[in-house]
Amino acid sequence: MNTFRPRTRSATLLAALLTLGAHTAGLAAAEPDSSTWYVRAGALAGGTGSAEAPFDSLARVESVSRDGDTIIVQSSMATLDGGIALKPGQKLLGDGPAVVGATDTVALPRIANTTGNHDGDAVRLAAGAEVRNLVITGARRGGIYGSDAADVVISGNDVTGTNQQCADGFMIGPFGLPPTLPLGASIPALPDFITLNNGWAAIMTDFHGAAGAVRIEGNSVHDTACGDGIDIRALGTSRVDADVIGNSLRAINLGLAKLSVLTIGVQAGDTARLTGRLNANSETDIATPATALLNVMADSEGVFINPFGQAHLDISVDANQFHNGYGNFSANGLEYVTTSGAPESRVRVTNSVFDNVTGDLIENYNLSSGGAHQSLSLDNVYAHHSTFPGAVLNSVVPANLGTCVVTTNFGRAAHTDLTIANSDLGDCSADGIGLIAYTPAGSEPSTAALTFDIRDTVVGASAANGINIRNIGDTATLRGSIARTAVAAARESLIRTSDSDGPIADARLALNGITLDGAAMNCDAIERDGRVDLAGIPVGC
Question: Residue 190's CB: how many other CB atoms inside 10 A?
């Protein structure tokens, strides 16, 4: 039965009389005061929007519904095409049992947008909207998209085949590269113009000036035609609090003329503030070459986090499961990168797995020359098996080549911090842990700082070094500690430190409770051990 919004006693009476008249005529009518509307693919034309006589098109229910109404998509073997733009506070709900995990051979609440309506988006969000339990089987652009649509919920949907027109969505950059390689070899000067484009995401929320929350939970996103899985962008002066929880993402594919593909992308720029929790999500079989030949060129990412400008970003990642990321050497299970400006950002990753990727498993890159502060913490993280043969080039370009966890601090004013605790890292095609402080020459005094704390961790089976700490340039601070940590089975040094073009104003490496290839070592023994190469950075216990 329909529910009503009583405004006055006479309005209520009139609605009741109209309903009675409709039933007398053999129609279960949805009246102008109705707050719940029904729509079904394949319904008879001329329906009134009731459960018994649903509308037959999204366009019809969109035109008659009002702010705060509920729209129920009834199950069908057919699909409602054309997309729908929601109004503030509306709920768009799929009828029947949960669609996530359901078989395609049964009637389900299906919608799509193969037209140019709403820029090709299947669902266009508005502030306060909810979208639940829908099967979105294809869209010219996004499956579910909102611009400055705060306080929205996107839950329990199955989204596939999005961005058929291969529109650009999430953009990474612009950013620059250092003017020299670590060994001093010159490369052409590159201004801050490099930008990586991604295909429009299956589920995406953009914010420019709004303040509010977004909750994306329990969705299945898979087999994208051209682009990302789930993206959240906070730009301008927006203030966003995001929960991305319990989503399953698989077979996320690079598109034509795209340089990157993100399974889950989070970005904060300009003066925006973004806090978020990415919990219990999974990313599986990303940019698989067997799915699409273009994927062999993909810079694919499992979880991608990008602050820039003057933004503030604070993200926690818990119970994440990443398995099988393909593409080129820059593919990652998790990448956290500051591309420009002087943002303040922090990312904490706990109880998570990153397993099998072409490039570095986890990247922590501060590429800004403008004084960005960046902090990554890993606790109880399993990061194993990278496949790019990076050890061949590791002495020249000791990053982006298959390291288990790599951290870089670029620029004369950047500050980067890394904490690794209670973690298991190994079977990587370059270093186990790589830490690189790169401070280019400049007229102003350097304030660049790279700090780290590695404890209660296992680092094993690295094709290059177990732990590799490198400084290039007049870095102001390079300090860290390695405690109660086991390093084993590195083809080169178990622990290596080096300094080029220093001096470092404040340098110190503290070692305590180190085990090398299964043998517990005191500080003096470590410094004399031939499997350890300590140079350029003072060591203490």
Answer: 12
CA angle 126, 153, 324 (to 5 degrees): 115
User: Is the distance from CB of 482 to CB of 509 less than 8 angstroms?
Assistant: yes
| Nearest in space to 155 (alpha carbons), one of 139, 134, 136, 126 | 134
List, for residues 100-156, the tens digit of each pLDDT value: 999 999 999 999 999 999 999 999 999 999 999 999 999 999 999 999 999 999 999
Report residue 352 CA to chain centroid gap.
14
Average pLDDT for 287-301: 85
- Say whether 369 sits in a helix, a strand or coil: coil
- Determine the 3-state secondary structure of 120 from DSSP: helix
Please classify residue 312 by burial: count the beta carbons closer than 10 Å to its beta carbon, then call 0-12 exposed, 13-18 middle and 19+ buried. middle
**C-alpha–C-alpha distance, residues 399 and 436, integer Å:** 8
Beta-carbon-side half-sphere exposure of residue 302 (alpha carbons within 13 Å): 31
Q: Over the stretch 407-465, which tens digit does the pLDDT of each residue have?
A: 999 999 999 999 999 999 999 999 999 999 999 989 999 999 999 999 999 999 999 99
- Exposed / middle / buried, residue 315 (Cβ in 10 Å: 0-12, 13-18, 19+): buried
User: What sign does the CA torsion over 514, 517, 518, 520 have?
Assistant: negative
Q: What are the tokens at 434?
A: 């790589």
Nearest one of 45, 47, 93, 49 to 70, comparing CA atoms: 93
